[in-house]
User: Fold this.
Amino acid sequence: MPGRLPTTSDFSSHLDLTVTPPPQSQAPVNVLILLHGLGDTNTSFTNLGKQLALPETACISLQGPTPLPFDLGGFHWGDDIIFDQATGQMDFDTGFAKITRILTSMIRTLVDECGYQSREIILFGFGQGGMAALTIAVSFDVELGGVVSIGGPLPSSIAASNTSSSKNRTPVLILGGSSRTLITPDAISKLGAKFQFVDYKKWPNKVADGMPRSRDEMLPIMQFFSRRLRSRAGVPEGSIEIG
Assistant:
């Protein structure tokens, strides 16, 4: 049986999130959890979920749990705020214990109360949100539907931890610009040490790790979704999935 459409009341009242149902009143088979970048809110990724209009897929756009200080506006996913003294920029990699607890609880709710399998839950994150998505995927022993991380490498605390004898089977798509990118060869190597399936896409002629702005930049993401999203279209009611 496919899962039911999640509602905001399924999750902690302390969380700020939106739920976008699948297009055309389709029954949800998958859930895409969207994690915005550092300093943003969940509004932009609520709109992204609507624009994607992925078939048979409910989108949950979660807002970072902690507001930025000094009236900067926006929210972040880290356990702390650290400024680089050389550049004045905020550090992305400041620990992810709090959001790991939050996302673990959300995924367990989707599985235990809403009826999804872990394989039907995909995470999509930008920048620091991508780092949070990779962190939660590493922490799960079971295979999730996948992780798409744009400009978000594996956090240093995870990369430095002892590697188990078997790699995580959740597939990862990681994307970055061709210059001024955090997705370096070393970052890709560290991902490969933790995940069995890592696909890296470098956007040519793109400075820094921004969100996709063209059809060509969006293509590898949509191809990943087409491989990983499940469908029950045309499956008779009451059928049992094998394997």
